[in-house]
Design a protein that fits this description.
single chain, alpha+beta, 2 domains, five-stranded antiparallel β-sheet, four-stranded mixed β-sheet
Length: 247
Amino acid sequence: MAADPRKRQKKLERRAAKRQDKKHRLVKEQHAGLAERLTAASRYPVLHSWALEDLWTEGIGQVVISRELPDGSVAFGAFLVDRYCLGVKDAFGNVVGRSEYENKLVRDTRSHFAVREVSPATVRKLVEEAVAYAASLGLSPHADYHKVKPIFGTIDPGESTEEFEFGKDGKPYFFAGPHDTPERCRQILAVLAHSRGPDGFHYTIPAFANLDQVLPDALKHGRARLIRPDPQGSLLDVPMDFDNEGT
């Protein structure tokens, strides 16, 4: 018996509508903001989940979680976690082709750093507990953290049995990085002095020419920990008396 032309036409129309809906959804995802794209990607399987060994040895290091999308592309979120003080110091993410992801993130990272494979639950637990620790000090995560965190999706941090220590030697420890300006150092130190008191934390800052630009009033009569080069060019962590700026 020949198929009913009307039923066949309706079936073709339904298929066309589905194709059109899929096309609209893909276009919408491609033009969406980062948070929206990572939210959409979070329903797909986890591809990689790792943390740099520096997190345990140096107190700061990157953690990454990625997901493989049906079209072969990869969505990822990378968080620079500072266990000692700042929580999430930097965050970035994207949806890229598989080859770009492998070449620019996976191979580049693994060729320069020791990497520890950890569970997705552990990555999320570490990131969120670091953010909570920094918040307890009065410090906020990097501005892009909230755009990148949707990559976690429904991952349950409670499934991780890992335990993390925050701070160093029982206190927050702010170690200024190469991109921390004098003004940023001053802001962070002022927040720590307010939340923990002048003696409630440790810090190491670059040896700027004028410490008055860096140290808030509450710290100006203590001994700053400074990073400065020795005559051979090696970096030294040394105490310096603010009043005479001598060692």
